[in-house]
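Re: zinc ion structure - here you go.
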Amino acid sequence: MRIIKLALLVWLLSAVTVFAEEVGHAVASGHAAHWTYEGEAGPAKWGKLSAEFAECSIGHAQSPINLTAAETAQMPPVVPAYVTPPLHIINNGHTIMVSTSDGGETNFAGKQYKLVQFHFHAPSEHKIDGKTYAMEIHLVHRDSNGQLAVLGVMAKRGKENPEIKRLWENIPKEAANKQVKVDIASMLPSDKSYYHYVGSLTTPPCSEGVMWYVLKKPIEASADQLQKLAALFKHNERPVQPLNGRKLLFVKDTPALATPMVAAATHPPEESSPPPAHKETSTSHEQLVSAATEKAAESKNGGISSS
Ligand SMILES: [Zn+2]
């Protein structure tokens, strides 16, 4: 009996060591407890693993979700402006993450956010009309107030993707951190029609108040490329969460709309010029934001409304 107890103690100590290493890998993500995508520390248990993770189970505005029955809306387009400095690529034990302090930015709904990092989930976390894609890329952005906006890009099986090829060739062993150069913009589809809603991080601590912009059109990656991610993580997707009455918008990419907006910005207003296409839409966006982030800090909300 005593021997069994001793063996259990040794096993527990080794588990604690693994946990400590995991925290070491989790660059700047502040993971407080070991979590996984299966079993005792899997998604259904995340909220119980640590007080800091409580939102994973008690939150009412969680991600991912099934993107379906969206309300069509008019909002400014998603305009990425990424650059290609050397990026840092790591395997943090949960995903392949590429981080940057100078990777450029994206304009979401008329507001600039800096790219912080991007990472991969296989299969996809969001569903589109119930359909799961082979992979989903999350490009995580932050504005000057600390507000997060994530651009989700689906990938389906198809042609080999040259940027993903370069990334996969540079996946470091374990905790190492390697440099890699990729053209992030070419990892996006040309049609930037998007779904928009307010949700959460899809990993612990599942913090809410995250602006989600998920592109409808997928990019392609080869079966081998998809297989490589599966070989590393088996699967790393959180199941879809209930919408709980949140607004889900769909914004169609209409390049034609961009012309009058540019004209309005570069020329003095004329009597005959049409009202800016984004005027009424920014109101509906602010309403959406304020309705969905009631629980979020007032300062954040004020920051958004002021733009
Ligand atoms: Zn993610």
